[in-house]
Design brief:
Distance between the termini: 44 Å
Shape: elongated
Helix content: 25-40%
Oligomer: single chain
CATH class of the largest domain: Alpha Beta
Number of domains: 2
CATH architecture of the largest domain: 3-Layer(aba) Sandwich
CATH superfamily of the largest domain: Periplasmic binding protein-like II
Number of strands: 12
């Protein structure tokens, strides 16, 4: 039996219907694909709940691996093992659903927009490197400040990682939409999380590399994230 963990509730497009075991959604599908490479059938996969923040805390784990949009960072890697990345999270541009920017077809459309971002994030670097706005983006200290500025129309659009964009537009910013996604240098790499020194880590690495090489990861990303979420890729 292979025990796989994720948080609850589990949100689309990474999990569908809050049922990680149904194989639907990007990360559910990736988990079963990894399990298959490890020699486990779907019936041999058992799901368990692990809160996001406790997943990378030091100490023994009650799972074989955890898959939950967990970014690979140096501090976390001191306490747990990460697989090689199975996904690089792009940036998402959130706009008001009634805004003309909602119909943008390129990054150039946002050059003259008032853009809001959080200080010290990959999103800020991405805005400057990829959008190259004509005026400096408005930089805020916290994500809550970014959201508040958007709600009072102080900015035309905010840029966050795509996973956060999905979460925000389905919860706090119901009047908003994701105008597009774009890749940027330094994007967040997500890894499968395992206990520190797990004997399974090299096996999971081999599985993820194989899924990358045979196109499975790209296919699942296209199906569940790019296509199902209907978020156009802007260049």
């Amino acid at each position: 039996m292979l025990t796989v963990a994720t948080d609850s509730p589990a949100y689309p497009p990474y999990f569908e219907d809050n049922k990680p075991s149904n194989g639907k959604g990007f990360e559910s599908a990736v988990a079963y694909a990894i399990a298959n490479k490890l020699g486990f059938s779907p019936s041999e996969v058992k799901w368990t709940v692990e809160p996001f923040d406790s997943s990378y805390a030091p100490g023994p784990k009650s799972f074989d691996f955890d898959i939950n949009e967990i970014s690979i960072t140096a501090p976390r890697a001191k306490e747990v093992d990460f697989s090689v990345p199975y996904y690089t999270n792009p940036q998402g541009i959130i706009v008001d659903a009634s805004s003309p920017y909602a119909h943008a077809t390129s990054l150039a459309a946002f050059k003259g927009a008032k853009l809001g971002v959080q200080i010290g994030t990959t999103s800020l670097d991405a805005v400057n490197a990829e959008i190259k706005p004509t005026s400096q983006p408005q930089v805020f200290n916290t994500s809550n400040d970014v959201i508040s500025a958007f709600k009072i129309h102080r900015v035309d659009a905010i840029v966050v990682d795509l996973a956060t964009a999905f979460d925000l537009t389905s919860t706090e910013l119901s009047h908003a939409t994701i105008a597009g996604q774009f890749s940027a240098p330094g994007g967040d790499n997500w890894g499968v999380l395992l206990s520190k020194g797990s004997k399974l880590t090299p096996c999971v690495n081999q599985a993820v590399n194989a899924l990358q090489a045979d196109g499975t990861l790209a296919s699942l990303s296209h199906r569940w994230i790019a296509s199902a979420a209907s978020v156009p890729v802007l260049r």
